[in-house]
Design brief:
Blueprint (H helix, E strand, L loop, with lengths): L42 E6 L6 E6 L7 E3 L2 H6 L3 E5 L3 E5 L9 E4 L7 E5 L5 E8 L5 E7 L20 E3 L9 E2 L9
Parallel strand pairs: 3-10
Antiparallel strand pairs: 1-2, 2-5, 4-9, 6-7, 7-8, 8-9, 10-11
Amino acid sequence: MSNTESGSAQATPEPAKLPTAHGESHPGYPVPLTDESYKIPKSLVHGSCHCKAVTFTANVSLDPDMICRCNCASCVKNGKRSYLLLEKDFNLLTPSSIDDESVIHTYLYGRKAVKQQHCKICGVYLWGIGARPRWGNEIMLGLNVNTLDDIDWSDKKWRGGEGGFYLDGKGDFKQGARTEPFEFGFW
């Protein structure tokens, strides 16, 4: 997919299509949010990896209570805190495709239900992509909050370990969400 239409230098980029890993969905991914939680006010923010080879915009709530921490091995090892976004709330600017293997590395493990993606150049963990069966397998993106640019997190309550919610990714997301970490999770 191209970010610009031919003949139009200022064309609005189309939202990137977020494929699930191998076209499959995981029966329990993700389960924590209610339909109401997606109606809270959102802000358009810009984000990138460290080297700026991957850039994007996203509509996210800057409420620290909407930050997710998962206890699966990948999220723990990456120190990931994420916003769970619907496909319509994410727009990849560069590269032109989320599957551009010259810039984005995809890592699959276990059941291969979630695509874990990193910048191939600087190594920054970007996001995880999976389907949410509760909403007709709608594609969801777990966006690493640390990739958001120009946001001052110093006064946010999650900085001290408060706020946000936890997922039991190690247990296939079957236990939903809660305010304390699951086994092997971090505060």
